[in-house]
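Worked problem 6 (solution included).
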Amino acid sequence: MRIKTPKAALTSLCIGAALVSSLSVAQAASLSVAINQSRIISLSEPASTFVVGNPSIADANFASPTKVLILGKAYGATNMIALDASGKVILNTNLHVVTHQSNRVSLYKGSAKQSLDCRGDCVATIDIGDDTEIVKSLIKVTKDAHDLAGKAAGGDN
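Solution. The predicted structure is:
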């Protein structure tokens, strides 16, 4: 028995396939950037708009119409969308801001956690889940060092 495909169904199938193929061009595998680091992404065509879903997690700046600098600001996941001048989606992808796991060490004293960044010598750093008192101490030391550097440079800090 032979089944005839109606012309309308065949047309719908072709349009659907075209939409799926255009979406796959605009979609990209999820990207990651390390916290406090920047990454350059290249777009397939010039963009006029670039949006980061949650700007507290990452920031984006145009380096050129086809290059965007992404800065990881806080741990987490968000999305990024790039549009051309006519509003066509060039990029729509997930972004994950991650840590430098290979250099990070967590030190536990009972239930208190302290994070260390160990590239050569280990230096105290702040990470999610760190003990509140340790974090407050690191913030104070950092602020004091910043104030001292500002005074040495002749600033009013």
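Discussion: The beta strands are 31-34, 38-42, 49-52, 58-64, 67-72, 76-83, 89-98, 104-109, 112-119, 121-125.
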